[in-house]
Amino acid sequence: MPRFAILAKAAVIAVLAVSPLISSAQEMSTESKEEVISRMTDVIERHAFVPGVDFSLWGEFLEKRRASIDQADSVRSFSISVNRALREFGFSHIRLITPEATKRRNSGGGLLAQSRFQREERPNESLEWVDDETALLKIRSFGSSYSQKKINDLMREVDEKAQSLLLDLRYNGGGSVGNMNHLLSHLMPDRTAYGTFVTRRVYDRWQIAHPEEEVELSKVAEWSKSKIRTRLRKHEPYSGQIAVLINRGSASAAEIGAEALRETMGVPVVGSRSRGAVLASKFARLPDGWSLQYPVSDYVTIKGRRLEGAPVVPDVTINMRRSEESDPVVDEAVRQLLLAREKTAESDSSSDGDDDGDGRLAA
Hints:
By secondary structure, the protein is α/β, with parallel strands linked by helices. It has helices at residues 3-24, 30-47, 58-64, 66-71, 75-86, 99-107, 148-161, 177-187, 200-209, 217-223, 253-265, 328-352; strands at residues 95-97, 112-114, 119-121, 125-129, 134-139, 164-168, 193-199, 227-229, 241-246, 269-271, 279-285, 291-301, 316-317.
């Protein structure tokens, strides 16, 4: 490569590397900070919802951090101070997002694996073969980088060739519930109910209908007719064995999907505990390119489990990290499915041999 081309490429990489630093170091005036906080307060107190949470406390949380907010003179220091105040609520999916991060979120770009010298795109969805019969489907996000068309294509290959499927949701931080439901609709029967989003409307209606009862989120969810269900599809769902892989990086929609498969289909979950961050949220625009993520509903599984603050606990816990030679979580998931096949074969064999003495199978 010509020397000038190398220098030009190096210059581009350098600009990409320092541009976030420049943005985060950008100065903020007192007026800009107050405009952002004022709009945030309006959104939080009027639109945010988590059952049982008093959002009018936001003013108190803000005052506790007032000194550091007033002293903040850059985008970075301001966002850190405000987000510390937001963390006083004690739940997920509420955060102030910088203008730079807001641009990245709105761009819908894929995930990047970055080294010191390069930025290499990784596909959001990938399919590998552990052996001739076992497919490993890795999904890194259910966000804007999720491709329903690509999943359709990959699942067609899985349907045709795989006896077993390992669904790898490790480090999947969630995203769109619609995308997660699209995946589940490849794996579960049509119209399978697997959970309930408890919105302000559902919560208020339950209280009106049950004025004398103490509120329990599981009761509210059971009472609600608005269940989340898999969609109708033109083909049958995958009929082979399934195991789900999770870790601390699995959150939100990924946790919903993992627990849905376990509760409705008995699918084993292997790995380490998930994050326990499962609230439905929206994004509000704020002045000067800032944005606010805020919760609008809670989630309860079909069996009455609230996942916010209660991580998905694997059936088999594996905390060992993968190496270039092996992945202990994948190895254990394969072993679990093999044991399940052997158990099913033994059960079938036992049933075939259970005779009542006159040539007829016993009931």
